[in-house]
TrEMBL record:
Keyword Transmembrane helix attached: no
SUPFAM superfamilies recorded: ATPase domain of HSP90 chaperone/DNA topoisomerase II/histidine kinase, PYP-like sensor domain (PAS domain)
Annotated protein name in UniProt: histidine kinase
InterPro entries on file: H_kinase_PdtaS_GAF_sf, HATPase_C_sf, HATPase_dom, His_kinase_dom, PAS-like_dom_sf, PAS_4, PdtaS_GAF, Sig_transdc_His_kin-like_C
Organism placement in taxonomy: Bacteria, Bacillati, Actinomycetota, Actinomycetes, Micrococcales
EC number: 2.7.13.3
Keyword Transferase carried by entry: yes
Top enzyme category: transferase
């Protein structure tokens, strides 16, 4: 199915809600195409008196009569009089004779969709008649249901804005099972798939002639867990969706009330066995919960290691040993913070901005608690994979600590800046550029000796982040460190 909406924006004189109503139609009219065993086309008038195809739906219950896509094209000359007649009369118009081509015979109907007394568009239904045979009861019922829905469209009663558009998967389709109810909620017809779905729930009797509400009520074992929408769905009173569960089988139900100008005269109930779908969803939920629990336990274990290092440092007499343990404790705490963030989410991605906001300030304070070091952050990191976020957090922690301990050493205060920028050039992967700078003493003259911290930084940037790192003087004084890394490789990990 495709939709071509530019003509609406350019030429339509719509009232509030009209365009949304047509979008709602196109979002749900696959139902009608399947019931009618016909292709559907949506036509919209142009200023020159012609029509353009806005959308096209092919039936999944039968073969299509249009193998090529004609959305955006003008209407054929032989079809326009029928569409004109439907637009003006605001009632369903049928072609006076069967349209024969070299391969097929088609029956064409034009159905105006009218809202608040104004025709907004015309739907044409094209059904192949070349395979002539006696239609079954299923086909006759399906076509009557399609006619009832299209007739409601001419009255502005369908599609219904009250239909919820929830995101939960498993929406029933015509082929999954269809039940037609009368105005009292009694089953008039149930398709073979609909009967099979209720048999899996435990109902072994015929559905026809019985109220669907009584059938479903008898199948429910634990009525405390019943969805409050269930009674209105199984009686066909509201266009809602609900689910029932019995004997380990989950059945998704969707009701579509049938109305005319005066009253509701019946309803369609689509049903679908979603047991396997829900089982897989539960497995994913269980898997997500397990992963979060693992991250939580790793975080706890790392905090325990940090506490042990802190206890050990208190027993050290050597200042160099105390400093080494303090640095190790800080690095372990940084990794623990990443796992804490992961334990609170549902994905393996980290909102790095939220993570680094806490870590950035903490790194500067821990590095020199006696100094009044200011921290400023600019730009956005965005979401990063966990195996990308952990080394990046360690790198930033080491560089901020190095800036405070060496760049701002011997000063009462100073500022450390952290900036992030995502860049994407044409035909080039997206890159992340991270800059840590300070207004300290600047780079030393001559060759620099790298301590353990800078060796860790260089190793992580090159091996874990597959990026580059460069030191340079900061304009205005101080030091600037620039890290550049590609993000596409991180997403593929």
């Amino acid at each position: 199915m495709a939709i071509f909406t530019d003509p609406i924006k350019e030429h339509a004189d719509f009232a509030p809600g009209d365009a949304e109503w047509l979008h709602l139609l196109v979002g749900d009219w696959q139902l009608v195409a399947d019931l009618a065993f016909a292709d559907l086309a949506l036509w919209f008038p142009l200023p020159d008196g012609s029509y353009v195809a806005l959308a096209h739906a092919r039936p999944s219950t039968s073969h299509t009569v249009f193998h090529s896509d004609f959305v955006g094209e003008r209407i054929r000359g032989d079809l326009q009089p029928l569409v004109d007649a439907a637009w003006k009369s605001q009632s369903i118009e049928r072609s006076s004779e069967t349209n024969w081509t070299t391969d097929t015979a088609m029956r064409v109907e034009a159905i105006p969709f009218v809202r608040n007394g104004r025709t907004l568009a015309v739907v044409t239904s094209h059904m192949d008649l070349s395979s002539s045979r006696m239609p079954s009861r299923l086909e006759l019922t399906y076509r009557q249901c399609a006619y009832d829905l299209l007739r409601m469209g001419t009255l502005g009663l369908w599609p219904d804005f009250a239909t919820p558009t929830g995101s939960r998967r498993g929406a029933p389709r015509v082929g999954d099972g269809l039940i037609r109810l009368d105005a009292q909620g009694v089953v008039q017809y149930a398709s073979p798939n609909g009967v099979s779905a209720f048999r899996r729930l435990g109902d072994m009797e015929s559905l026809e002639g019985r109220p669907l509400a009584e059938i479903t009520t008898a199948l429910l074992k634990d009525r405390r867990m019943v969805d409050e929408t269930l009674p209105l769905v199984v009686t066909g009173r509201m266009p809602w969706r609900t689910e029932i569960e019995s004997r380990g089988v989950s059945l998704s139900l969707r009701a579509i009330p049938l109305r005319d100008e005066k009253e509701r005269f019946g309803a369609l109930v689509l049903c679908r066995d979603v047991s396997e779908l829900r089982r897989r969803e539960m497995e994913l939920v269980s898997k997500d919960a397990t992963i979060r629990e693992i991250h939580h336990r790793v975080k706890n274990n790392l905090q325990t290691v940090a506490a042990l290092l802190r206890m050990q440092s208190r027993r050290m007499e050597s200042e160099e040993g105390k400093l080494g343990l303090a640095q190790a404790m800080r690095r372990v705490s940084t990794i623990a913070l990443v796992h804490e963030t992961l334990s609170q989410g549902l994905t393996q991605n980290v909102d790095f901005d939220e993570l680094i906001d806490r870590q950035f300030r903490l790194s500067a304070e821990v590095a020199s608690p006696a100094q009044g070091v200011r921290t400023e952050r600019q730009g956005t990191f965005g979401e990063l994979p966990s195996d990308f976020a952990t080394p990046l957090a360690l790198v930033i922690n080491e560089l901020v600590t190095n800036a405070v301990e060496h760049g701002l050493s011997g000063r009462e205060g100073g500022t450390v800046w952290l900036s992030a920028e995502r860049r994407r050039a044409e035909d080039v992967e997206e890159t992340l550029v991270v800059t840590i700078s300070d207004d300290g003493v600047g780079l030393p003259a001559g060759p620099r000796s790298e301590g353990l911290g800078l060796q860790i930084v260089r190793t992580l940037v090159q091996s874990e982040l597959a990026g580059t790192i460069a030191w340079s003087p900061r304009p205005g004084g101080g030091t600037q460190v620039t890290i550049e890394m590609g993000l596409e490789g991180a997403r593929r990990r």
